[in-house]
């Protein structure tokens, strides 16, 4: 058995697109949150903190997908599910109580400012991670 045999490879086929999208979202969310927290945090602390949280989630999922392996696959699956819950909760919150959000977050209105990628990406990620488990087993 080689070092890579028995390891769930997550960066192949559609997984490459999922990793690429998570990488792009990581860079975008990290850049946005660092700038907003550094320059205007007092204006909208809740949205900027939520954007930073989204950035951490995106970066962790990107890392686990690239790392591969069954443990990484399970961690990414849990994080994708938590991300989906976060997107749905924050998206709904921004619609129900817009006054709580003087500025948008990555997950505002289900990712409207990001062409709805924040709500579609965890669904796609969950699909890919479940599919990669079936293929490995």
Give the terminus-to-terminus CA distance: 16 Å
Shape: elongated
How many H/I helices? Answer: 4
Compressed to H and E, one letter per element, the order equals: HHHH
Mean pLDDT: 88
User: Structural class per helix/strand content?
Assistant: mainly alpha
Largest sheet: none
Radius of gyration: 16 Å
Total number of strands: 0
Share of helical residues: over 70%
Describe the structure.
- The protein is mainly alpha-helical.
- It is 71% helix and 0% strand.
- The radius of gyration is 16 Å and the shape is elongated.
- Residues 1-6 have low confidence and may be disordered.
- The protein is built from four helices and no strands.
In short:
It contains four helices and no strands. By secondary structure, it is an all-alpha fold.
Question: Could you outline the blueprint of secondary structure elements for this entry?
Answer:
Layout: H1 14-40, H2 45-67, H3 70-96, H4 117-136
Helix pairs in contact: 1-2, 1-4, 2-3, 3-4
Descriptors:
disordered N terminus, 4 helices, 137 residues, mainly alpha
């Amino acid at each position: 058995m080689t070092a890579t045999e028995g390891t769930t490879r997550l960066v192949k086929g559609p997984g490459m697109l999922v990793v690429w999208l998570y990488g792009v979202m990581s860079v975008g969310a990290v850049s946005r949150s660092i700038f907003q927290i550094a320059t205007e945090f007092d204006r909208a602390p809740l949205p900027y903190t939520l954007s930073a949280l989204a950035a951490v989630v995106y970066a962790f999922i990107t890392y686990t997908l690239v790392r591969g392996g069954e443990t990484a696959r399970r961690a990414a699956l849990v994080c994708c599910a938590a991300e989906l819950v976060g997107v749905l909760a924050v998206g709904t919150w921004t619609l129900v109580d817009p006054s709580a959000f003087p500025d948008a977050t990555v997950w505002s209105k289900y990712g409207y400012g990001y062409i709805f990628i924040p709500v579609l990406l965890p669904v796609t990620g969950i699909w890919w991670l479940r599919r990669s488990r079936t293929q490995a087993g």
